[in-house]
Amino acid sequence: DAGITQSPRYKITETGRQVTLMCHQTWSHSYMFWYRQDLGHGLRLIYYSAAADITDKGEVPDGYVVSRSKTENFPLTLESATRSQTSVYFCASSDWEDSDYFTGELFFGEGSRLTVL
Amino acid sequence: QQQVKQSPQSLIVQKGGISIINCAYENTAFDYFPWYQQFPGKGPALLIAIRPDVSEKKEGRFTISFNKSAKQFSLHIMDSQPGDSATYFCAASRGNTGNQFYFGTGTSLTVIP
Questions:
Q1: HSE, side-chain direction, 13 A CA sphere, residue A40
Q2: Set of chain B residues whose Cβ sits within 8 Å of the Cβ of A110
Q3: Which of A2, A5, A63, B106 is in the most buried spot, having the most CB atoms within 10 Å?
Q4: pLDDT tens track for B61-87
Q5: Whether the Cβ atoms of residue B109 and residue B17 lie closer than 8 Å to each other
């Protein structure tokens, strides 16, 4: 099915463990994003990628690592999970029309709910 | 510092009523203002969006009102339905900088039958 898929949908882990959240999109969108959603904070950008092998930090990147070796995949790794990283994580993708005016829509996955004990 | 401020945090409306959610921003470089709708257990999805060259955009029962001088924009849901119960996020971005999407904190809307 076309779209953007995240796995796992639910994950419980312990403090200090490494966790990787997977994201796969079938549209060949240039841009991919990782957001975290927390009550009272809305959606905050963790990392984004403009193309394969190009990544950059967002608003809250500390404690996270990303890679993008293929256009369709954008995994997010928590190298040593902390309780403050308990959250719902959303992957999103987007592509731009070739114009000077932004027209991109963000397409979100269904989220990965992570609990760090 | 919250780039986009959204209110109220939660809203309860009777079926058939009007739901109004407000957002404010400071950065005058923002030039794209979308609203996203999120149902429980799902990711946000684009509902409607506006650019600052117009003061209002309507799509069905959903209307965005935009006040450039006040740096405010709002979502109006006319004839609210129980199926509209969801969380709504406003956002703002600058031009062709996809990494510069700033979201509000969200409004949980409940429409009572």
A1: 0
A2: 41-43
A3: B106
A4: 999 999 999 999 999 999 999 999 999
A5: no
